[in-house]
Structure formats: structure tokens, C-alpha cells
Amino acid sequence: MDLSIIIVNWNSKDYLRNCLAAIFRETHGLQFEIIVIDSASFDGCDAMLRELYPDVKFIQSEKNVGFARANNMAFRASKGEALLFLNPDTELVGPAINVLLDHLQKMPGAGALGCKLLNSDGTVQTSCIQSIPTIVNQVLDSEASRAKWPTSALWGMAPLYSPSEDAQEIEAITGACVMLKRKVFEDVGLFSEDYFMYAEDIDLSDKVRKAGYKNYYVPLATVTHHGGSSTQQTVSNFSVIMMREAIWRFMRKTRGGLYGLAYRVAMFTSACGRIVLLFLLSLKDSFFLRNDAREGAFSKWFAILRWSLKREKWIKQYYPS
Question: How far apart are CA 193 and CA 64, in angstroms?
Fold first, then answer.
């Protein structure tokens, strides 16, 4: 078996259908298997698979075990010499899988490979490659700063703006589409189950590099990532808080408890500053409360402020003691 394609589904049946259609349409000349694991969403994807794709292996998890653990469960049922972890809300643009596998087999020392991800409107999704999180790049991160200095080493996304079509070494790859050899995945201990969602891809990229392999961005492999289909269905600011929690856990794990504490303090300070700035801007605009963008920003940073003070108690259901 050349390749095992592993997809974790959570309330994404319609996206999953299109994802699978693109895989079978665009991928040729490979012996591959597809394993879909549903993480207790029970959205009917099992019936859809039986009807349209009976050869796809299906696993039903009775509990929502999180992204990392679900991927690891599906991996243990796989046989491929290479692995592709793919989000259900993605669609291949051309033979992306063939391109990635060709690069994986030809590049010595290759650890994990990522592709060029596109938004639904065809624009490049700049989060498809990243730098390893630090306090500095997390505090300074914003859409405005990324837009003004897109090639800064802080964000790790400079290869997206390079005219070269060659694979380029990077720090971290998003988990929406990541390919690596089975041996590498086993060598680094699979996905870390320290995270319910988010940061497990950063953690994997970090472990791959520390094990002596290299992570690469392959611009010739292109995938559309519709993005956010699962988290959009949950409570307001859910993804914002879960992301900060995961990054905090990653920093504490890889840099120690003191660094993790410093990150919380930095997020508290940053949130206070952003809230004050938004308030001052509102004084100049009497229509502030009807401005969705500003209201959303205010809500986001207030939630981050609460998280930094450990006031978002609902997180405990995803990270029980």
C-alpha cells in the first residue's frame, strides 16, 4: 500500500463527500486506502460512505476524542508506507496527492510535507505554513501586521510569496493537509494527545524537526481548504480560546512552566491593550455598536482576557484534570 489517507470527520458530511470525490478524480497511479473516522458527530457520513464510497474504511468513535487522538486511532488501522492527514473540508486542485508523494519519496531527509492551501475564493490561505509559536510572534500577530510584513520571519510564511516552485524548508505545517512517511510518524510518537484540537500539528512539526528530519512546503501541490466548517457551528469565540489554550500547553510542554506562565501574562497584557484601543476608537465613532467587525474584535479580546485569568471554565470539559 503506497498511501493511507486519514480523514477525521465532525459534522462535515457534505464537505467530506466533495473531498472524497476530488481524491478519486485527481489521484492516479497509486495504491491507496482512505480511512474516515467520525468523532462522535453521528452526522450520517457512515450511510453516505456505504452508498457512494463502499471501499472507504469507516471507524465510528463513540466519543468526541479530539483531532489528535482520532487521527492516531485511524492510523492504527492503516497500512500505507506513507500517510496523508487531510481535513474533510478540503478539495484537491489537480494531482496534489501525487505531487506530494513524489516529493516525499525523492527528497532525502524529508519529514512532513505541506501544500499550498487556498481559501474558497481562490486566495492563498496564509496559515498553511507557520513558524513555531513564541511569546513574541503571538503577541505581535494580527491581520494588519501580517499584511504589512508578510515575509517577516515572525510568521514563517515567506515561502508563500516566493516565485520559486521548488519545495522549501519551513518550521511548521497546518494539520489540514500534511503528508509524511509512516516510519517518521512512528519515530516521533504519532500525534501528541496533549491537545484536544489545535497545536497538535505544530507539535508534530516540532517533533519532526527535533528528530532530525525537515519539514517542507510544496507549492506545486494545491488544495482548497474551505476552513472552519466545524468550529463555526460552536459557541462564539470557541476556536479563539481553544487555540490559546493549545498554544499555552505547547509552550509549557516544550519550553517549561515558566515560559507558559509568561505567555499567559503576555496575552493578558495584550488583551488589555487591545480592549483599551478598541474603546478609544469607539469614542470617535458613534456607530461603534453597529460595527460588526469592531464588536467581534471586542468580544474576541475580552474572551482572551478571561482565558488569561483562567475564567473560561468550560475548557475543563475538553481538558479534564
Answer: 13
Residue 115 CA to residue 220 CA, distance in Å, equals 7
Closest CA to 141 of 156, 121, 128: 156
DSSP assignment letter at 12: -
Residues 6+ apart with CB under 8 A from 23: 5, 34, 92, 97
How far apart, in whole angstroms, are the C-alpha atoms of residue 158 and residue 284? 36
The model scores a pTM over 0.85: yes
Per residue in 39-64, pLDDT (tens digit) is 999 999 999 999 999 999 999 999 99
Q: Are strands 3-9 and 82-86 parallel, antiparallel or unpaired?
A: parallel
Q: At 304, list the grid cell.
A: 482572551
Question: DSSP secondary structure string, 244-304?
Answer: HHHHHHHHHHHH-HHHHHHHHHHHHHHHHHHHHHHHHHHHT-TTGGG-HHHHHHHHHHHHH
Contact 193, 247 (CB under 8 A): no
pLDDT tens-digit profile of 210-264? 999 999 999 999 999 997 544 444 446 899 999 999 999 999 999 999 999 999 9
179 phi/psi in degrees, rounded to 5: -120, 140
Grid cell listed for 136: 513574541
Are 264 and 308 a contacting pair, CB within 8 Å?
A: yes
CB burial of residue 315 (10 Å; 0-12, 13-18, 19+)? middle
- CA-based nearest residue to 205, from 180, 225, 226, 222: 180
User: Is residue 88 within 8 Å of 67, Cβ to Cβ?
Assistant: no
DSSP secondary structure letter of residue 124: B
Report angle CA 167, 113, 229 to the nearest 5 degrees.
120
Residue in 171, 134, 172, 142 with CA at minimum distance from that of residue 260? 134
